[in-house]
Amino acid sequence: MNITSADFYISNSRADQCPIDAIAKPEYAFIGRSNVGKSSLINMLTRKKALAKTSATPGKTQLINHFIINNEWYLVDLPGYGYAKRGKRETQKLTQLITHYICGREQLTSLFVLIDSRLEPQKIDLEFIEWLGEEGVPFAIIFTKADKNKAGQLRHNVEAFLRRLSEQWEELPPHFISSAERGTGRDDILGYIDSINKSMTTAD
User: Fold this and answer.
1) With contact defined as beta carbons under 8 Å apart, do 25 and 74 qualify?
2) What's the domain count of the chain?
3) Shortest CA distance to 106 belongs to which of 3, 191, 25, 9?
4) What is the pLDDT of residues 105-152, one digit of tens each?
5) CB 44, CB 68: distance < 8 Å
6) Domain annotation covers residue 1
7) Over its length of 204 residues, how does the chain's per-residue pLDDT go in tens digits?
8) DSSP3 helix / strand / coil % (the chain, rounded to 5)
9) Residue 187: CB atoms within 10 Å
C-alpha cells in the first residue's frame, strides 16, 4: 500500500460522536498498554513523524483520535489500557470509552493490539485479548519495539506469548513484528490492511 496522504481528522471523548460518512469508511484501530510505542508505530506506518503525538509520559492518549488515510480509510488511535497511575474514576471512564468504541462501532474493521516484544507474556494483555474473543471482535497482534531486544530474546518472547494464546485459541490471530525506529513490519501491516480493503470492495 502506498500512503499518499495521512491527516488528523477528529478527536472525540465519546464513541457515538465518531465520524459518520455518507459511505462508511473502514476503520483500523490501534490499542495497547501505555508505553507500548503506539504513537511511534502510527507515525512510522504513515511516515509522518508528528502525526500521532508521542510523549515521555505514559497514558497521554485519552481520546479517540481519527486520522484519514488516502481519503479512503481511518486509522484510529485509542487510549491505552493498564496505566497504573490513573485514578479509579479516570480508569473507569477510559474503560467505558474503549468498550463502547470496540463493541459498538460498526465501522471498526480490525483492531490491532500492540504487545511490547521486550516482555514476557503479561496477564493484562492476555485478558484483553480473551475479552476480544468473547466479544467477537476481529483483531491482529503487533509486537512492537523489536529492535530493543537482545539476540534471541525477540523470538523467545513472541513464541512464549503465542503459546499462551494457543492455550485458549484453536486458531491464532494474524501477528506482525515491528520496529518504529527501523521501519520493520510496515509493509506487512499495510499490506494486511490493503488486502482487507480490497476484499471489502470486491464483496460490494
Assistant:
1) yes
2) 1
3) 25
4) 999 999 999 999 999 999 999 999 999 999 999 999 999 999 999 889
5) no
6) no
7) 999 999 999 999 888 889 999 888 999 999 999 889 999 999 999 999 889 876 554 445 688 999 999 999 999 999 888 655 556 777 788 889 999 999 999 999 999 999 999 999 999 999 999 999 999 999 999 999 999 998 899 999 999 999 999 998 999 999 999 999 999 999 999 999 999 999 988 765
8) 40, 25, 40
9) 11
Q: Is there a domain that residue 55 lies in?
A: yes
Count CA atoms within 13 Å of residue 97 on its CB side. Answer: 23
Question: Does residue 33 lie in a domain region?
Answer: yes
CA distance 32 to 116: 9
pTM: 0.92
Establish if 147 belongs to a structural domain: yes
41 CB burial (10 A radius; 0-12, 13-18, 19+)? buried
- Structural domain harbouring 161: 6-203
Contact 69, 5 (CB under 8 A): yes
CATH number where 45 lies: 3.40.50.300
Residue 50 phi, psi dihedral angles, 5° rounding:
-115, 20
